[in-house]
Write the structure tokens for this entry.
Amino acid sequence: MHMHTRWKSRAAELCGGFMVLVFGWLGTGCGTLGGVAPVPARFDEAKSVVLDHRPEVADMRMTPAAGVNQAVGAFDVGRFDTDELSVLQRSLDETFAAWNAVPGAPKLSVHAHVRLYALSFSNIELGNLIAVDWCAVQENRLLADERI
């Protein structure tokens, strides 16, 4: 397997797994209350891998009105908005800073766009649907992309 192909696969695994983890955390409703503290993800595989690229968050966006809430007999805690998006960006920044990269490693730009963050809840149940596009780019070359 070619080194670039192997690394591309590894980048997709690590970044994709991390994005699922973060949006899973947001899916619990914790990301919809505003003022939420960033939570850097820590998982053993990322700690043990030394990357030959240094990931950085280049761009975090959301579709206008991406946050949709439906409160059923409960207090409406608020929609996912730009405040929560900034918390997500700080969480990614802190997580990527903890990953090891070889000295002088080139930058890997990670872009994410929240398309939908729908939340329906009552006092005893919660359901959510989240759609996010993300990609990893180096020197204007797309290395990995995915919709989760």
Observations:
- Confidence is low (pLDDT under 50) at residues 1-7, 27-33.
- The chain is about 30% helix and 35% strand.
- Residues 8 and 143 are 6 Å apart (CA to CA).
